[in-house]
Amino acid sequence: MRKEEIIIGRPLAGIVFVISLFLLFPALNTARDTQTLQSKVDEYINRKMEKFSGSILIARKGKVLVSKGYGMANFEHDIPNTPQTKFRIGSVTKQFTATAIMQLQEKGLLNVDDPLKKYIEDYPNGEKITLHHLLTHTSGIVNVSSIPEHRMNLMFPTPVEKTILLFKDKPLEFPPGEKFKYCNSGYHLLGYIIEKVTGKSYEEFLEENIFQPLNMMNSGFDRNRTILKNRASGYAHDDNNVLINAPYINAPVTFSAGGLYSTVEDMYIWDRALYTEKILKKSSFDKMFTPFKGNYGYGWRIDKILNHECIHHAGGHYGFQANIARYVDDDVCVIILSNMVPIRTRILLKDLTALVFGEKDEQLED
User: Fold this and answer.
1) How many CA atoms lie within 13 A of 58 on its CB side?
2) What's the domain range around 335?
3) How many Å apart are CA 339 and CA 71, to the nearest integer?
């Protein structure tokens, strides 16, 4: 009996051993892929982007392959950037504003085909401009960022109503819906509409309907006066290539067009949520990710990077730059948050894309 047990036990043990190895191989491969990609990214940053300061996260099929900080969150106090460092994300804010609008549409509180006059009765041409036009940058409204007075207001507390007055009475640059022209004004108006429809501040609505449900606890509306742990300072280089503090900006002035902060880890939570129906129905996301004029959807650009279908958006503030790129067909996400300008984050995004997809080294040459 014992002999039989021993004889039978040996093949069984061998089978168990083989199965264990089979199950272990994917984990080993993932660890190897992670280590290889991390070393390639490190080498690339040191060779081509040595002045980069910020955090990078790269993930594929639900696995984080790279999550690392480079440079300093604060050069004066020698505090390094980490994946938990909070950066201003500029116009990446727009995708959250667009999501909030779609949430309100699902609740029946508004419709993207509504005319602007429904919410601001005396808005010039408000019967011709729809929320869809605002979302897709096809409204014809003058971009508030091109108005000198607005650039001055960026330094001071300025309510959204005062910002709207800067562009409200200016002539349209083209008939609504005729063409695409990037316009921050439209997203200021969308934030104002969110507040008017809900009776809550833009900040409160996003906290209650996006950040808290997704457990994005390190994201929010940026206020200069708030003591915010792990906040990055913004930097730039002067004409002599000397590192300096970036010009001051009162972040809330950029409002629903660019007023949020986040971390690479939180932005990855956001990426994963966009594959689910946790905060929006699939039909709403499909609408957001449909390219209209200028390959722009609702708060996202939809086109190709290195021949890979990509849903992405960039953002910038004085001293800050941000990029999130989602290669949904490949389930790949590349997130770049930086507290240094000028850094060529679009080139950085393209080159990191080449690395993660194993493109030829020639892609990474200047």
Assistant:
1) 23
2) 47-364
3) 9
